[in-house]
Amino acid sequence: MDAQTDLDALVNFLLPFAQETLGKHGEFFPFAAQMSVEGEITAIAIETEDEDHPDSDVVIGALGDVLRTHAADGLIRACGICSDTAVTIPEKGMTEAVRVSLEHAAAEPVDVYMPYKTEAAEYVFDDLVAMEGVREIFAGPEISDGAEW
Questions:
Q1: Residue 144: helix, strand or coil by DSSP?
Q2: Would you say residue 138 lies in a domain?
Q3: How far apart, in whole angstroms, are the C-alpha atoms of residue 76 and residue 122?
């Protein structure tokens, strides 16, 4: 498997749950998924003291802490954190979007956005947009381009 295939699998794992939850509840709290070195994807959620209205930044930070530990321990090769955000998309302007911040041990980080709007109480999702991400989970300046999974 190559890094792009791994990242695509994570997006395909995370986005449907976000879309379903938005449709049912009008919101969702950040959650994540990780891919083990063997290629198995598992979901990660964080419990907070305020279960009804947890602060998204706190949840994202806690998810990052868990994923950083798993990456440092060599347990995962890729991960993604999914959140609801506002973003400026070139040529489209500011919009609400589902964001999946993806990282892979053997590739540059990328943020994938799925813009959405509500029409007649229904969520309408637009095409995915990828933008440069920020490396926060997999430490070290070097990317292991030659990694074989």
A1: coil
A2: no
A3: 36
